[in-house]
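ok trying again, last paste got cut off:
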Amino acid sequence: MGICNVTPDSFSDGGRFLAPNTARARIDELLAEGADFVDVGGESTKPGARPVPAGEQIARVLDVVRYAVGAGACVSVDTTSAEVAAACLDHGACLINDVSCLREASLARAVARAGAALILMHTRGLPQEMTDFGSYPADGYKDVVRETCAEWWSAAQRARSLGVPADAIVMDPGLGFAKSARQSGELLARVREIVEAVDVPVAVGPSRKSFLTTVDPGTAPEHRLGASIAAALHAARSGVAILRVHDVRATRQAIDLTRQLGGA
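nice, full thing came through this time. structure:
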């Protein structure tokens, strides 16, 4: 899943694809590099990011969604807004990526009405409630895998009760969301346990995130490619179904060669 952030303030590529022509070029790039999905977002989810009204999100992303659908892409839309979701699903998006762990029941209803799929990402708060990357109490979880799965399962049950079929739900453990760097690292290290514990496909998004700096402190997001690829390889070996990444070609090359060599 290749990322296209149509925002001025996303943590890694904010502002790069805000203009319509650059967003379209980004879609072309992701597809040329072999993305199976493109994930389009009009609201930053970094800590402290301001909420973006639904109308503004739609103005940012709808043209990009139409363009991507016209290019033959399977389009995911990164939003917590039912209004944004409905508008994009009406124009051909097939998947909604909800980073709120279903704060709003109306989002699940919009997905169900459209017959679309839903990624539910685990978190314990909205981005504007978080203060810093990787900042979360060390004692916030007794067992980060078990608690993440249990809390996610509660959200999945709500989605099913609102009409989203079980086979249309994807689980994302939410690396970096309401987790410290150590907790995110442990989730990734133990992601096979998550794959085995839930009865739906699992998606992860380690790409360029701050918890990766535990192996190279102080590096900027654009300098975390090596760690991002290592994280993706580990996730693929562990049975993760979807990898949400910025660097599609480099990640695919690493996974495909590892498989060719018999390592995944």
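cool. The two ends are 19 Å apart (CA to CA). The mean pLDDT is 92.
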